[in-house]
Amino acid sequence: MYLQYSCAEPERGREGNHSSRRRLADFSPRTAGSYADEVFYFRRKNGGLSKARNSGIELAQGSFVQFVDADDYLIGPPYEQCIDLLRYKDADMVLFRETSQVQGKTRFSYEGPLTGSELMRHHNLRASACGYLFRRSLLLNLRFRPGILHEDEEFTPQLVLRADRVFSTESQAYYYRVRSNSITHRQI
Questions:
Q1: Superfamily for 62-175?
Q2: Which of 2, 146, 180, 186 is the 20 to 30 Å CA partner of 38?
Q3: b/e string for 66-97 if b means 16 or more Cβ within 10 A?
Q4: Is the omega angle on the peptide bond into residue 77 within 30 degrees of 0, that is, cis?
Q5: pLDDT digits (tens, 9 = 90+) for 88-102
């Protein structure tokens, strides 16, 4: 499985006002293996992060959801550990670490299961929705609120509280590209 893939690559530099759905394999020769036919790339007019993620939620058909920002990517070996926790531990949600290093560290240890409320009582909650792989069924009517900054800080705690079986690993499965002009790092 080769997951080291940047979501910004398929149509870099193209603007458009239409929405389209295509298999990721149609765009990226770097994506290989049996997963290429199961991952879809959706393109929509820029309306902000909340609207983009809400569109992804509405279009999702699989059992699990993972958000990946356009300039970031998932790191194969550590992410496979997260998928194994879903498969073999019947997890509702798996939390993992992000890194700004090209190669993430895989730590084959984990904590869990915990309920979402236990996790929030005993651990610092990481707000970024990209650091969680979770069952789509947890969402029910939960969506990101458009028009606000730091929408993950509102969304993530509500999602975590819905989970009965949460596992946490220190594996660095998400590459986070640090940009000085991003909303998160910009001085107000």
A1: Spore Coat Polysaccharide Biosynthesis Protein SpsA; Chain A (3.90.550.10)
A2: 146
A3: bbbbeebbbbbbbbebbbebbeeeebbbbbbb
A4: no
A5: 999 999 999 998 887
